[in-house]
Specification:
Elements: H1 3-8, E1 16-19, E2 23-27, E3 35-41, H2 56-72, E4 80-83, H3 87-90, E5 99-103
Antiparallel strand pairs: 1-2, 2-3, 3-5, 4-5
The structure holds guanosine-5'-monophosphate.
Guanosine-5'-monophosphate binds next to strand 2.
Length: 112
């Protein structure tokens, strides 16, 4: 079981900023920007690489929820970054699909 499943199940605490039947969003415990929020499906999909056609609407919702949270957090004017890491070279460390919402400072490109 991943640490994010434990957050979904309320076995460990998290600073939750959004929740509905399908999606949970909470603040990253090790923030890399003034605002760093993780948006995850409650369904235990490992990454976008493991998602299938039946998950298309759910994946779309992750982005729409992230955009709505960004709006609520006042990030829309300055902009923000959405990232989902996949596998070893992608830098994924928690194997439950998540979209990072990062904002509140300028982002460099390319990422290191
Ligand atoms: P990844 O490296 O898989 O793309 O991102 C995983 C993220 O989960 C990291 O940014 C890390 O700081 C965050 N994280 C890991 N464990 C916890 C935890 O227990 N609680 C919260 N809120 N975030 C966590």
């Amino acid at each position: 079981m991943t640490i994010f499943q434990k957050i979904i199940d309320r076995e460990i605490p998290a600073d939750i900023v959004f929740e509905d039947d399908e999606v949970l969003a909470f603040r990253d415990v090790n923030p890399q920007a003034p605002t760093h929020i993780l948006v995850i499906p409650k369904k235990p999909i490992v990454s976008v690489a493991e998602a299938g056609p039946a998950d298309a609407a759910l994946l779309g919702r992750l982005l729409l929820v992230a955009a709505e949270i960004a709006r609520q957090q006042g990030l829309e004017e300055g902009g923000y970054r959405l990232v989902t890491n996949v596998g070893r070279d992608g830098g994924q460390s928690v194997f439950h699909l998540h979209v990072h919402l990062l904002g509140g400072r300028p982002m460099g490109w390319p990422p290191g």
